[in-house]
Write a structure and sequence with these properties.
Elements (H helix, E strand, L loop, with lengths): L10 E4 L6 E2 L2 E2 L3 H10 L3 E6 L6 H10 L9 E3 H12 L5 E5 L2 H9 L3 E4 H4 L15 E4 L7 H12 L3 E4 L5 E4 L2 E4 L1 H12 L5 E2 L6 H10 L6 E5 L2 H11 L2 E5 L6 H4 L10 E3 L2 H8 L5
Parallel strand pairs: 1-4, 1-13, 4-5, 6-7, 6-8, 8-9, 9-12, 13-14, 14-15
Antiparallel strand pairs: 2-3, 10-11
Helix pairs in contact: 1-11, 6-7
Length: about 280
């Protein structure tokens, strides 16, 4: 491993699951690394493809791991989707959501008329026309997704609703292994509606990182992204022009690193947060 450079980056963007924690368990050294960056005067942001929880819930979750974060330091794929709709599709007001309660809460708090797919379809829904039209279907990870929810969402898209994906992760890490990610739901809706998403917001698309840079007033050259997923975090950093560190505390392992090429190849690899601190010339003591 080589040093990142003679000076610290002005902004460090962390992925969450697999980098700061994994499930309910903290990644050792992550809290200390974040605290050291704060002491050194670096801006810290957290960018997650997880659409299931609100930003306030992530603040509470980080606090449980000894990390002090503010709501404005956190960008989720749901909050980034809301920002995108406001900026690019201001006419969208009535939204059908395929996702967890956190997505629904965030959309309603942002002033949207949001209806979960579970409520939009009657128990005997058979794929026919819906009684309500929607401006957009926003789909993310939904642990309770079922055939009926997919059916009503696909029907809404076929009826003219914009198809928006919060992210398209193929799998979702848990403490015990991997579960299907939002990408599996997006794929099912793509097939059932015969339509591609109008936009996919989350990583590996660069929209989240670019929005963070703009709001922070930091150039890509002065930022660093730390992630565990080459297909999401590292590709997004490449596309945004940001240097990246791949940590081996989540999706990636040493065997995978050997095969990484092109956009999936990070600038640096570190086994854990303590090693990242070494790359940055920081002491965790």
């Amino acid at each position: 491993m080589t040093s990142i450079g003679p000076t610290l980056p002005r902004l460090v963007i962390f992925d969450l699951d697999g980098v700061v924690y994994r499930g309910e368990h903290a990644v050792p050294g992550a809290a200390e690394l974040i605290a050291a960056l704060h002491r050194a005067g670096c801006l810290v942001r957290f960018a997650t493809n997880n659409s299931m929880a609100t930003r306030d819930e992530f603040v509470t979750r980080l606090a449980s791991h000894g990390i002090a974060a503010t709501r404005d330091e956190i960008v989720t794929s749901t909050s980034a989707t809301i920002d995108h709709l406001r900026a690019h599709l201001p006419e969208v007001r009535r939204v059908l959501t395929v996702g967890a309660d956190g997505m629904l809460t965030a959309f309603r708090a942002a002033g949207y008329e949001a209806t979960p797919a579970a409520e939009a379809a009657p128990a005997d829904y058979d794929g026919g026309p819906l009684s309500t039209t929607y401006d957009a279907v926003v789909a993310g990870i939904d642990p309770r997704v079922d055939y009926r929810r997919l059916g009503v969402a696909a029907a809404a898209i076929r009826a003219g609703a914009r198809f928006i994906a919060t992210n398209a992760d193929a799998r979702y890490p848990t403490p015990h292994g991997f579960m299907p990610g939002a990408g599996s739901i997006i794929a099912a809706l793509r097939v059932a509606s015969v339509a591609d998403p109008l936009v996919i917001i989350g990583k590996p698309e660069p929209a989240m990182f670019l929005a963070i840079l703009e709001r922070a007033g930091v150039s890509p050259a002065d930022a660093l992204a730390i992630g565990d997923n080459p297909d999401a975090d590292i590709v997004a950093a490449r596309r945004a022009g940001i240097r990246s560190v791949l940590v081996l505390t989540g999706v990636a392992d040493p065997a995978m690193v050997e095969s990484l090429e092109g956009e999936r190849r990070p600038d640096m690899v570190a086994p854990d947060p303590a090693a990242v601190a070494g790359l940055l010339g920081l002491s965790l003591g």
